[in-house]
Specification:
The protein is of the alpha/beta class. The protein is about 40% helix and about 15% strand. The mean pLDDT is about 95.
Length: about 550
């Protein structure tokens, strides 16, 4: 006689499937459309649910958590306005190559196509912006859908996946099962391809290696640095991937970022070989496609990327290698040049690193000196494993230029250029690594886009230090406005709250500073304190870049 199957609702099965696939944190704004999943989180030993104050912040936290840990993270949002708000974080994950799993609680199946309350077409909304979007109309197929979602999000070029689940499907009863995990796929280069790569790098007179993209780790960093040192190649990090290389490594030549060092731009343009490793070679890293010609670069181009769709998409490389950064870096760790690196190559690498060191040190001509000195001081004072976060804004130029990142995970910044990212990312970093120092830099405009997440920070008793750079304007737009329409400010002036009082309203310490000496004292006090802290640094709106 067959025993009746033990049943559970689909919400519980979904949470168990996510936990079995390495998801340890789920971020959400609770919605009635996925109540069974919320109920399952109550009992879950594998996943901790973090309740946030707005879906954009929740999605950004999930993206940052996945990026810094290398594991997929989940975000649960409700239909209509909830999923619309979450789009901001999904876009960050898409352009940042981050394995984000967005679960959307949808309207009931029987109410579709009637413009029911909060109805939205999830497939149409995300079709061109994520790696895969699907709707689960039958709970008995959840294992299939979740397995495919995890594999898609984590394999090749990592990225976001969206699963829409109707409200009534969450309540559907399904048999209890023992979930299986899905391992991400690594793509390895062939021995012949590695031989060709090493031979061409060895034969070049002036090679540069530009690293970026998703799928990075501390192990990849060490393997790549070792390869560059053995072969005498300068290392360049792409836009907001500065923590991919120890910035004090002797082969580090700087970051291909906004506000790029002119000497680095010259080196990229004059290199006879570019090894693009994991990066797409996007518009920022290439000086908006002026340093590397499209579609045929003047430099010999070797492109290593985990996604076949990215290879040859913009540039026509001389050597194409479809491989994961991790697998290719491991393979290159076992390679050495056949003959000693020339003295000229060694001198060129040393000169490039000296130029970077000089560029990243505040000088007598540096504008916004208080901010520059404060960032440089933090770079010296904080442990290498600390994490610095920021969103978009001109203030970030000072952060990226004067902070020297030492380890992977030290930087969380949106390659999509999203304002408001810094605070949610800092919360995620603190959740991932409770013992690390976490510092968020935010502009006065950007902080108020996700500033409500200070309530999340307070609710979970986390400690971070937020530095608000307050110049009373949308600085990036103001800079472009002054360039195109000088003296005709429109829409860029801001009226701000008292940020010190704002911080204290959440139970945090707060203070206002205008000089480096004041910042240093305030930061040291904040670091000694028990609670989070907000330091408001006042700057002139006339100082828009260093």
């Amino acid at each position: 006689m067959n025993r009746p199957a033990v049943l559970q609702h689909a919400g519980r099965l979904l949470v168990e499937l996510l936990a079995s696939n390495g998801v340890t944190r789920a971020f959400c704004v609770p919605g009635e459309s996925f109540l069974p999943a919320l109920d399952a989180f109550f009992d879950s030993a594998g996943i901790t649910m973090i309740s946030c104050r707005q879906e954009g912040g929740a999605a950004m936290m999930a993206e940052a958590y996945a990026r810094i840990t290398g594991q997929p993270a989940a975000c649960f949002v409700t239909r209509g306005p909830g999923v619309s708000n979450a789009m901001a974080g999904v876009h960050v994950a898409a352009q940042g190559s981050t394995p984000l799993l967005l679960v959307v609680g949808e309207i009931q199946r029987g109410s579709r196509d009637r413009e029911a309350w909060q109805e939205i077409d999830v497939r149409a909304m995300f079709a061109r912006h994520v790696k895969w979007v699907a709707e689960v109309d039958d709970a008995t197929r959840l294992e299939e859908y979740v397995g495919r979602a995890v594999r898609t999000a984590t394999s090749g070029r990592p990225g976001p996946v969206v699963l829409g689940i109707p409200e009534d499907v969450f309540y559907q009863e399904v048999p209890l099962l023992a979930p299986r995990s899905v391992e991400p796929m690594e793509i390895a280069a062939s021995a012949v391809q590695l031989d060709q790569l090493c031979e061409r790098v060895e034969q070049a007179d002036n090679p540069l290696m530009i690293v970026g993209g998703g799928g990075w780790s501390e192990a990849v960093r060490e393997d790549v640095e070792g390869f560059a040192q053995r072969f005498g190649v300068s290392l360049v990090t792409s836009f907001r991937r500065e923590d991919y290389v120890d910035n004090l490594h002797p082969n580090y030549a700087g970051h291909a970022n906004l506000g790029m060092n002119p000497e680095l731009a010259r080196r990229i343009r004059s290199a006879d070989l570019l090894l693009a490793f994991g990066t797409r070679l996007g518009d920022v890293a290439t000086g908006h496609y002026t340093l590397v010609d499209v579609p045929r670069p003047k430099q010999m181009l070797i492109h290593v990327h985990a996604s076949a769709e990215e290879l040859g998409r913009v540039y026509q490389p001389d050597l194409v290698i479809c491989a994961s950064s991790s697998a290719c870096a491991r393979a290159l760790a076992g390679r050495s040049p056949r003959r000693p690196v020339s003295a000229d190559r060694r001198r060129a690498v040393e000169a490039a690193h000296r130029d970077y060191l000089a560029w990243s040190e505040p000088g007598t001509e540096t504008r916004g000196r208080a901010l520059a000195d404060s960032v440089a001081w933090l770079s010296r004072e904080l442990p290498p494993a600390s994490t610095i976060t920021n969103g978009a804004g001109n203030f970030s130029i000072w952060v990226h230029r004067f902070f020297r990142y030492r380890r992977f995970g030290a930087q969380l910044a949106p390659t999509s250029g999203s304002m408001g990212y810094g605070l949610p990312a800092a919360i995620a970093a603190r959740l991932a690594y409770p013992d690390r120092d976490v510092v968020c830099f935010a502009g006065d405009g950007g902080l108020l886009m996700t500033g409500q997440e200070l309530a999340t920070l307070a609710h979970y008793g986390l400690k971070i230090i937020v530095v608000v750079v307050n110049n009373g304007t949308y600085g990036s737009i103001r800079m472009h406005q002054e360039r195109h329409y000088p003296g005709r400010r429109s829409g860029t002036d801001l009226t701000n709250p008292d940020f010190v009082a704002f911080a204290r309203a959440f139970g945090f310490s707060g203070c206002r500073v205008e000089s480096f000496a004041e910042f240093q004292a305030a930061f040291e006090a904040a670091r000694r304190g028990e609670s989070s802290a907000v330091i408001e640094m006042v700057m002139s709106a006339d100082v828009l870049k260093p």
